[in-house]
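Teaching note: in complex prediction, the entire set of molecules is handled at once rather than each chain in isolation. The prompt given to students was simply: 'Predict the structure of this complex.' The entities are:
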Amino acid sequence: MTITVTDAPAQTVHDFLDAFGRRDVAAAVSLASPDVLVVVYPLGVRGTGHAALRPVLADIAGAFPDLRLTVQRVIATGDVVTALVKVEGTQAGEYAGAVNQEKHLDLDEAWRFTVTGGAITAVSAYWCQQQLYRRLAVKRFDQIAIV
Amino acid sequence: MTATQANERSARTAGQVVTEFFDRYRAHEVEGMTDLCSINADFSYVPFEIWGKQRVLRGDGKVGTVGKTIWAGLINSFPDLSNTVHTLTANDDGDVVVEADIEGTQRLAWGFAAPAGQHYCEPHLFIFHVGEDLLIDAITAYWDNAGISRQLGHTEVD
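The expected output is the structure of the full assembly:
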């Protein structure tokens, strides 16, 4: 799908997702303000700053070296930009407690960004960790690392 | 404001439609929720995925068929089902994005989760599209089912 970006906040988000899709975590993080508010519900992450955002992106990029991020839709509602994406890749390392069984991941996610002055000032991410675990062959929520 | 402005789609009026949708959801008015949607409104609850031995049930389809069934089933299994809208943003094209908590106490089975009387409260992201007739013509939602399962005391992925 071709995404046409005409809105400034949407352009910032587009650049962020483009960098993340290339596994260029440093470039993606550089688009966020130093005090960006980060909430990743499925991982239980709540924090501020690049130190909160960087490991969220780096963990995915590291565990899935063939990461493919497809932007399905970008919705701009003022300074809030919501991106619907599909994340695909083959697991090559531990991720979110799940040991590597070389399973393929395909997961629909929604990322909601607030963009102020050209920088991402808040990001909250939504996806279903049950779907993720199912694809990575995890059987129990209380024994994620047991194969 | 003129009557014409009140009936024209804008960020404000689209947001009002969706606000009313959540009010009716909170009141368990499934028919009323459906009345706010166009007759062929699209429906996609992305995390809704039940793996059987030979097929996978997904929460994709139409509001009038899949959506109503899921809403009614949720209310049946969680009789005190409620929602709290935290943010609502909209644009003049009819797109409305909502962050809301959905919560309830389980009384009947839901999916593979047996009823244990547990309460859950889980953040959801909803994306609506409101048509020029001020009817919702698409609903998409994302949340983490693992969070809900853990809160309900269900520890198996499937």
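Point out the following to students. The first helix of chain A runs from residue 8 to 21. The mean pLDDT of chain A is 94.
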